[in-house]
Design a protein that fits this description.
alpha/beta, Rossmann fold, 6-stranded parallel sheet
Length: 401
């Protein structure tokens, strides 16, 4: 068995946000079985010097400092997706070529569609393309709800990315998505073959209400949302919650507070801290104390692709969860979370849980049991092992990057 090259659009460690969590656990799984080399970008200076804690061979973390404006101009001039020009860098191309020249690479694992542009034009290695989510569909949704030039750019991005995704999938030995729903959507849109679902897992020993962490001191009932707060679906979700849901919940439970927990809150999210009962924490070292303190965890996302790690984390912490239908997609929850279709259903679910703490805890306990049974990393990555066992490429192939 030869070596594996792992390409990632963001350095996988520390695993402290959704994409990095998936990438880290897949990388950890692969590195336990063979020699792995990593080439990845960093967009946080702290990630340039962090330790993976894994046994890896060559590791190259390159700074990605290109501004969005520059990437946008390059996208328009080159008629390429902004998602690709934002990650286009000669140093990365040279780094990948050097690793391929120095080592007996027989498998290239590409994490996220942005990194497919670094595949060589021709390779004897097997190519596993982990799209995670169908990004073109995300931009299609953005474009349908955004006006002006920004909306035009998003619709353009959706069209160009779909062509890119289809081209890469046509030549990859396997294309992976985080859920069956995403895989089916991709097949419907592209008619691609060799498409598989490899779900996200959760480390239930770390996300455990009885694990060792410093408790978060709170008084009164607390509703919690966790996430990267400069990410548009998260920002839009909490703003909708504060405007449409929280006032009605506070009518029934006047002392309830809503904590928005996550790094890089944008200006709109920061402004929510001025609203009655709203807490905006910014970055925290550990989300578990906030989850453990929550009376209810909410995931009110109108747009959500793939599997939401924040839902799995809350389930593992044995908290009652109220999620939108979009946020619950892809999670085998078996009715152990409350799924709300609209604002009124969301309010009713939260008010009911706040009124009966014992019932809320029973729901949380059932959610933890369910997530241990269905969403452990070992169970999820067994599907990846099956994919890797299937792919064989004796004669090399052309790669569309």
């Amino acid at each position: 068995m030869g070596d594996l090259l792992f390409l990632a659009h963001r350095v996988p460690w520390p695993p402290d946000r959704g994409d990095k969590i998936r990438a880290f656990h897949i990388l950890k799984h692969l590195a336990a079985k063979r020699r792995v080399h990593v080439a990845a970008f960093a967009d946080d200076r702290a990630d340039l010097t962090g330790d993976s804690g894994l046994t890896l061979s060559e590791t190259h973390i390159l700074w990605r400092g290109k501004s969005r404006a520059v990437a946008g101009v390059q996208a328009l001039v080159s008629r390429r997706p902004l998602s690709l020009t934002a990650f286009e860098q000669r140093e990365m191309r040279e780094t990948v070529a050097g690793i391929l020249a120095r080592h007996p690479i027989d498998t290239i694992y590409v994490f996220s569609g942005q990194m497919a542009q670094y595949l060589p034009d021709r390779t004897e290695a097997s190519v596993v393309m982990d799209f995670v989510d169908m990004d073109s569909a995300k931009f299609e949704t953005y474009g349908a709800t955004t006006r002006g030039f920004a909306g035009w750019m998003m619709r353009r991005e959706a069209q160009l990315l779909l062509a890119h995704e289809a081209s890469v999938a046509q030549t990859a030995d396997a294309s992976l998505f985080v859920s069956e729903a995403e895989a089916e959507l991709f097949c419907d849109r592209t008619h691609a073959g060799r498409v598989h679902a490899v779900g996200n897992g959760i480390d239930t020993a770390v996300f455990d209400p009885h694990a060792s962490f410093k408790p978060q001191k709170v008084t009164g009932p607390l509703i919690v949302f966790t996430g990267q707060m400069d990410y548009r679906p998260n920002s839009e979700g909490v703003r909708w919650f504060v405007e449409a849901i929280l006032p009605q919940v506070r009518s029934a439970h006047p002392d309830v507070r809503f904590a928005i927990v996550g790094r890089n809150p944008d200006a709109d999210v920061r402004a929510l801290a001025r609203e009655p009962g709203v807490i905006v924490t910014g970055a925290v070292g550990d989300v578990r104390p906030w989850l453990a303190a929550a009376s209810v965890v909410v995931v009110p996302l109108k747009l959500a692709r793939g599997v939401q790690n924040k839902v799995l984390e809350a389930m593992a912490m044995a908290r009652p969860v109220v999620a939108s239908a979009a946020a619950a997609t892809g999670i085998d929850h078996g009715g152990t979370i409350s799924v709300a279709e609209d604002a009124s259903a969301t309010v009713e679910a939260i008010v009911t849980l706040l009124a009966d703490a014992a019932a809320a805890q029973r729901l949380g306990d059932a959610a933890r049991v369910r997530v241990i049974e269905r969403h452990g990393w070992a169970a999820q990555l067994a599907a990846l092992d099956a994919v890797l066992d299937e792919i064989r490429l004796p004669n090399g192939h052309e790669v569309a990057a």
